[in-house]
């Protein structure tokens, strides 16, 4: 008996399985503010009316956009016209829901994380009229600071902490929200904003389903099968018509017929949330603006925005050429998705589809080992499909094939030696060996990379290295908490003990909250318990971009 069902959105926005994935409902994609407001948007962002470009992208128009545009055209040429006053009259700044969080004497990291689930919680419902926010059907957790919406791969690592802190119902809600977005738009956008719809982020939905299945059993795979398949179809769109040496959207077919994935964006214009920055980068780049903008957006889709890993010259953002690369982490994630689809179709009794996806997963695993294993270096790196060569750039992405069980035993042992020799630092593992000033480079470390390294090395018989990474990262986060009373988005893992632990670099200030840091820290503390420091009692905004106690970067 062929198993098929689909998800449809009920009036309340809750998903219910009833038909097949081919019939998934799609909704028209709303236009981003940069398109809706055109010249006005460009004028506001280029004039730096707001210090953070994302502020205007998230602002709420107080009237219909057409009326605002009409008023702008009528007033902008008049003597004494003031753009800031015009924006103030026609838009409301987004509320970041800053909460005055009273830290208690004796409060521990665990106390803070538990309290933050409430601080970072957002309720469902329709977004305000004309807002860039895409509504979600059930409650959700945001990262914190300037990030007042959910982000795709962040969600998996946030869920680790929710499950650990007995917030399993909320973890399930996070998955339901992502399923609702995939159902509505055919893919999970970077985040639930209209200006994120032109791209996605690392495809971790199947890994989220794994987390739910650990508690709820294998039926979860059948429940979310059509959504996983819809996600797969999005990432593989255009693969059937490709000839060797061609690429379309996220898919590349190599000369030998091997099909692998890359990061991509449908749009080739400046990002709404970094509009001015992208235009200024274009002025310093030799790339045609449209090519550069697409690469910048694809870099944002990678989640590593930005890293010298993506730069042609290894150091300059204006040379970003990520669409020429086949990333080892993305293809490991796609291997996991294919493997989960094979398993889910098997559970559903569809042996033909189960075999199809098992074969695809096996082919991808072999391709990763063929094209992305750097045997002389003993690690995984990205493959440049245009030059037919490895980039030979060592980054923490080398642990992702271990996390998703792609590597052979010998490869896993080799990666452990390389990471211990070249990426292990006093506070965890470095994101990369290069220090370019970008936030996904040295000296920064990020919670998701620590988690995948720890679990990856446990998978491949290196428990001592896993324990070392976990305890060094936990200690670095604890040190920051003892001093500042908050957890942040990234950390300087190269600094010695007692130094400023907060990470730096990139396009915006260090953010406080912080969803995936909280989630990974809670999960690691359960696996590798360490004494928790106490933060001095003080009152500070716990969900703001610049808490008074946080050292400036």
Name the descriptors.
single chain, 553 residues, mainly alpha, Glycosyltransferase, 2 domains, three-stranded antiparallel β-sheet, 8% strand
Characterise this structure:
With 553 residues, the protein is mainly alpha-helical. It folds into two domains: 33-92, no CATH class; 107-541, Alpha/alpha barrel (Glycosyltransferase). The chain has 19 helices and 20 strands. The strands form nine sheets. The chain has a three-stranded antiparallel beta sheet. A three-stranded antiparallel beta sheet has the order 11-14-15. Strands 1-2 form a two-stranded antiparallel ribbon.
Write a brief caption for the model.
With 553 residues, this protein is mainly α.
Please state the second-level CATH architecture of the largest domain: Alpha/alpha barrel
Shape: globular
What is the CATH domain class of the largest domain?
Mainly Alpha
Number of domains in the coordinates?
A: 2
Mind summarizing the main beta sheet?
3 strands, antiparallel
Percent range for β-strand residues: 5-15%
Low-confidence residue ranges:
1-24, 539-553
Can you count the helices? 19
Helix content: 40-55%
Radius of gyration, CA atoms, in whole angstroms:
23 Å
Q: What would the CATH topology of the largest domain be?
A: Glycosyltransferase
What is the mean pLDDT? 91
- Structural class category: mainly alpha
* Order of the strands making up the biggest sheet: 8-9-10
Total E-strand runs: 20
How far apart lie the N and C ends?
60 Å
